Amino acid sequence: MQNSVSDLKCTSIAAILHPPHAPRYDRGERKHPSESIPRKHPDDQPRGSISAMRRRIAISAVPFLFLLTALAQQQTTTPEQALQKYRDSKAATLRDDFGELARYRDADAALKPPAPGENRVVFFGDSITDIWHLDESFPKPYINRGIGGQTTPQMLLRFRQDVVDLHPKVVVILAGTNDIAGNTGPMRLEDIEANYASMAEIARANNVRVVLSSVMPVHNYTPQSQNLFAQRSPAKILELNRWLKNYCAANGCVYLDYFSAMVDDKGLLKRELADDGLHPNAAGYKIMAPLAEAAIRNAIEATKP
C-alpha cells in the first residue's frame, strides 16, 4: 500500500513537470537551438476553440456598443438641453457680434450698385435661406443674405447693412421660427411682430418692396426632428402667420405663403419635404421656388406706375 501511494505521488509530480504534450528533457540534456519551441501568441488559438470564439464575439460587439451609446445619448437629450447646447456654442459670437454683421460685411462692400433697369432681389433670413442654393432654383442672380440660427432682433440689427445698403428693388424676408424656439432667449409674439414691422418700415422708407414669408411648418416624423419640433409650437406658428398675412394686407406688403403649400393633413410639415422636420430638402425648395418667384413678380409689378 505504501509503495502504491509513493508510485502515485511520483507519477502525479512527473505529469505536472512533464505533461504528455510537451517535449521532455533530462536535466543533463541541452536543447539544440534548432529545437527551441516558439512561444505562442495569445491570439494563436485554433479557429474552433472557445477562447477564440469569445474573442471574436467581443471584438464584433464593440461597434454595436458604440451605436447603442450614441442612440442613448440622442434619446436622453431633451429639447431644453439641445437648445442650451446651441446657445453655448454661439455664446462668443452673440457676445462680440450679436447681429453677426461680420458675416457679409466684405461681400456687401464688394457688391457693385445695381445696373440701370436691374431688379435686384435680396433673400434675407435664417438657415432656411442660408442653405438655399438660389442659383439652382432661380435663373436670375438673386442675393442670399441668410444666416443660420438667427432671430428677428439679430436680423433687424443687420438689416441696413445687408439689405438697404445693397439697393435692392425687393427684399424677401423669412424669419420667426428661431424666435419661437428661443435661440437668443424667450420671445413674445408681440416682440417678433414688432421686429418684422420695423424691418418693413425701414425697407419702405428706402423704396424697397417687402415680401414677408410665412413661418414654415415643422414635423416630428423622424428621430432627428424631435427636438426641433418640440422647440417650435405649431400653435404659435399659426398665430404668427395670421399676423403676417394681416400686416401685409394692411401695409402694402406681399405675403408669401409657403405654409399652405407644405403642410400636411395633420397640420405639420410634409414628411418628404424635410429630413430633420425643419430645413427643406431639395423637394421642399422645389415647392418654395415658384412661390417666391411669383411673390417677387407681384412686388415688382406693384412699383410700376
CATH architecture type? 3-Layer(aba) Sandwich
Kindly report the spatial arrangement of strands forming the biggest sheet: 2-1-3-4-5
Number of domains: 1
Find the count of extended strands (DSSP E, 2+ residues): 5
Main sheet properties: 5 strands, parallel
Measured by DSSP, the beta-strand proportion falls in: 5-15%
Class derived from helix and strand content: alpha/beta
What are the secondary-structure elements, in order, as H or E? HHHHHEHHEHHEHHEHHEHH
Provide a count of the helices. 15
Distance between the termini: 129 Å
Unreliable spans are 1-38
Instruction: State mean pLDDT (0 to 100 scale).
Output: 84
The first-level CATH class name: Alpha Beta
Helix content: 40-55%
The third-level CATH topology is Rossmann fold
Outline, from the CA principal axes? globular
- Determine Rg (CA atoms, Å): 35 Å
